[in-house]
Design brief:
binds magnesium ion, Enolase-like, domain 1, binds 2-succinylbenzoate, 2 domains, single chain
Length: 384
């Protein structure tokens, strides 16, 4: 891996906690707070080099510790009191090695730094990623994407939203499942849409006592089942995978390239979902990417309902050659209307792709008035 350094030192890092109204709330097995979850809270990181070059990154932690232990509050604390002080005045992020954990906070800072370095060099973020792994990789111009559909009140509503997404041009449908919203719902969907690329995401809601249920799912031709068991577990997944035909994809339990290697070697799953925020940054993401690429492990980029800032970084990562399954990177209108960036991501309906951005830096640019609005919305939310 090529070390990334800026020409000009880091001068200032500003944190912007935001809350953005979601077009559609994504209900998952870990439960949702209807009022709070209609807003997506996050922290945007604005990093300025001494020569004036700026980069933006996104901390994908949410308001509450549902998917991950990190929250907007912990990210503000860790960044303000520890991460930012050790990088200001430096031309790299080596100072972060002194600290453990808080991968989402780390990724927000690292993404902002890499965006600034890319801008400084006149490269796109994707080109900088490719430079970091040795330079000669063939990046995609369009990335294949799918759409994630939350738990709905009824089967009919589920079918209706799938139908709507298919008509929009999405070719891969991911359905959130939980105990009681599982095999029967999936059977209804599969019988209505016999040929679509379909997968399920359990967000850790099941246990090894559910093996009979997973065996039944084998007849539904699912691309994969994402994170059926414990959010920290790899071992029990290695007990489940050999008993079922459907590939298991690990999301929550992969925090490092070593986790990915362990999971694949012991047969805990056959597919990796890579979220840069979950693995603590772009360097670790590239390590996971390279491991999967070299070992023919199918890989895709997961989503955390990012704004246009975080999605810009995910899109650059998804353009890397080892990403070979559709990613959770839907069009802007699936998440926000309007988004916080000027740029809008459109779905190419003819092939269910999104175009990779090749302008210098991150490729998306913050819309100042919408940022101010989203910050005011966060202040309001945090006082409730
Ligand atoms: O498990 O993949 C997940 C969103 C928030 C937290 C966890 C997950 C998700 C998604 C959304 O599935 C994917 C997206 O951003 O489109
Ligand atoms: Mg998931």
């Amino acid at each position: 891996m090529q070390k990334i350094e800026s020409q000009s030192p880091i001068q200032r890092v500003t944190l912007h906690p935001i809350a953005m109204p979601m077009v559609e709330v994504l209900i998952t097995s870990f439960g949702n707070d209807a009022e709070r979850d209609s807003l997506r809270a996050a922290v945007l990181v604005e990093l300025q080099l001494a020569n004036g070059t700026t980069g933006w990154g996104e901390v994908v932690a949410a308001w509450s510790p549902g998917y991950s232990y990190e929250t907007v509050g912990t990210a503000l604390h860790i960044l303000t009191d520890f991460f930012i002080p050790v990088v200001v005045g430096k031309r790299n992020l080596d100072g972060l090695r002194a600290y453990r954990g808080h991968p989402m906070a780390r990724m927000g800072l690292e993404a902002a730094f890499w965006a600034a370095v890319a801008e400084e060099r006149g490269l796109s973020l994707g080109d900088l990623l490719s430079f970091a792994v040795g330079g000669s990789v063939e990046r995609k111009k369009q990335v294949e994407v799918g759409v994630s559909i939350g738990i709905q009140p009824t089967y009919d509503q589920t079918l209706a939203i799938i139908d709507k997404r298919l008509k929009e041009g999405y070719r891969r449908i991911k359905l959130k499942i939980k105990p009681g919203w599982d095999i029967e719902m999936l059977r209804v969907v599969r019988s209505t849409f016999p040929d679509i690329l379909l997968m399920a995401d359990a967000n850790s809601a099941f246990s090894l006592s559910d093996i009979p249920l997973f065996k039944q799912m084998d007849s539904l031709n699912l691309m994969m089942i994402e994170q059926p068991l414990g959010h920290m577990d790899i071992y029990q997944h290695s007990k489940l995978q050999p008993q079922i035909g459907t590939p298991i994809c690990l999301d929550e339990s992969i925090h490092t390239v070593d986790d990915a290697r362990l999971a694949i070697e012991i047969g805990a799953g056959r597919i990796i979902n890579l979220k840069p925020g979950r693995v603590g940054g772009l360097v670790e993401s590239l390590r996971v990417h390279n491991f999967c690429h070299e070992n023919n492990v199918p890989l895709w980029i997961g989503g955390m309902l990012e704004t246009g800032i975080g999605r810009g970084a995910n899109l650059a990562m998804a353009s890397m050659p080892g990403v070979n399954l559709p990613s959770d990177l839907s069009a802007t209108n699936r998440y926000y209307d309007p988004d916080i960036t000027h740029e809008v991501f459109h779905l190419n309906p003819e092939n269910s792709t999104i175009n990779v951005l090749n302008t210098p830096g991150l490729g998306t640019h913050i819309h100042p008035e919408r940022l101010a609005q989203a910050k005011a919305q966060y202040q309001h939310m945090s006082r409730k």
